[in-house]
Amino acid sequence: MNIRRLLIVFGGILVLALGAYGFFTLRHPVLLVSDLPFSGLYGSFREIKSRAELSLRFFRPFKVVSIAENAGPDMVVFALEESEKSPYAVLFPYRYYEGARRYADKFPHLPVLVTGSGPAGTEADSGGLEFISADTETDCYRAGLAAALLNRGKDGKVGFFHGGALDPAGRDAFLAGLREGGAEDPPLFLEGTNENAPWKELSSAVVKGPAGVLLERNLPIPVILFSWVDPELTPTSVKVIFDDSPWALAARVLKNKGRKGEGRREASGVIVLSGRIGDPELEKALKKAAKVVL
């Protein structure tokens, strides 16, 4: 009798699982436009993991549509049509903006979302698209808090390496985060390509832009990196990563979709590399700083 009951229970669970799987596969998928260079940078395993997590969260398939890096707008639209006739939504990185605009013109009833930012006025001229870019102020504030924590007790300054055009609001937010985190010395704002930076004065660094000059020196200081790169490919000096890739923003983008023509800001995903911290209290404080609302 017990065996019979177990078989009935097992059979019931199997039927429910098969039914749920069948329902899942019938749901309209979310398409994410990508290419091989991005997949190589982001990491293939990491991409698979992100797809699985988002599929479970939204209980619908997520499909990557990989296209040639230099594909024209018509080829982008063709690749999407071949992949899926009726998607739930389509998510484009900004580098494929022209393809996104053409796709939205052809399928005005579908949500077409573009992550990243372009020239001023782009959003106003493209009412059929939804634009989402990184919330620079929140990101820089959180980076300031994290930098203050990593620099605590060290004799030296925080270096902020940027791409040459640091947004004033982002700069102010970073300074506010440093102050809130208890840092007393003013940071050094340096261009990321500066070969003559005062390396000996630095005891920690934030990199928002070109990272080669700093990382190639392999300085024994903690680094906060703004990048899409797979954490496994970074040196052990990198302790925290701010990720504003389409995969990192996808959950919040889809949850709040429906604002065509609006430019929306979303905070980056923050990865605290636990195995590189070495201090449970510091790790806990960094993870808390990664969630602070400006």
What's the layout of helices and strands?
Elements: H1 2-26, E1 30-34, H2 36-42, H3 44-58, E2 62-66, H4 73-83, E3 89-93, H5 97-106, E4 112-115, E5 130-134, H6 136-151, E6 157-162, H7 168-180, E7 188-191, E8 202-208, H8 212-215, E9 223-226, E10 238-243, H9 246-255, E11 263-266, E12 269-272, H10 280-289
Parallel strand pairs: 1-2, 1-3, 3-4, 4-5, 5-11, 6-7, 6-8, 8-9, 9-10
Antiparallel strand pairs: 10-12
Helix pairs in contact: 3-9, 4-5, 6-7, 6-10
Provide a descriptive summary of the structure in words.
The chain is built from ten helices and twelve strands. It has helices spanning 2-26, 36-42, 44-58, 73-83, 97-106, 136-151, 168-180, 212-215, 246-255, 280-289; strands spanning 30-34, 62-66, 89-93, 112-115, 130-134, 157-162, 188-191, 202-208, 223-226, 238-243, 263-266, 269-272. A six-stranded parallel sheet has the order 2-1-3-4-5-11, with helices on both faces. The chain has a six-stranded mixed sheet with strand order 7-6-8-9-10-12, with helices on one face. Strand 6 (157-162), helix 7 (168-180) and strand 7 (188-191) form a beta-alpha-beta unit. It is globular. Mean pLDDT is 85; it is low at 15-24.
Could you estimate the helical fraction of the residues in percent? Answer: 40-55%
What oligomeric state do the depicted chains represent? single chain
| Structural class label | alpha/beta
What's the total helix number?
A: 10
**What is the approximate shape?**
globular
Radius of gyration (CA) equals: 22 Å
- In round numbers, the mean pLDDT is 85
Strand order of the largest sheet: 2-1-3-4-5-11
Order of helices and strands: HEHHEHEHEEHEHEEHEEHEEH
Count the strands?
Answer: 12
Uncertain segments are: 15-24
SS strand fraction:
15-25%
State the end-to-end CA separation.
Answer: 61 Å
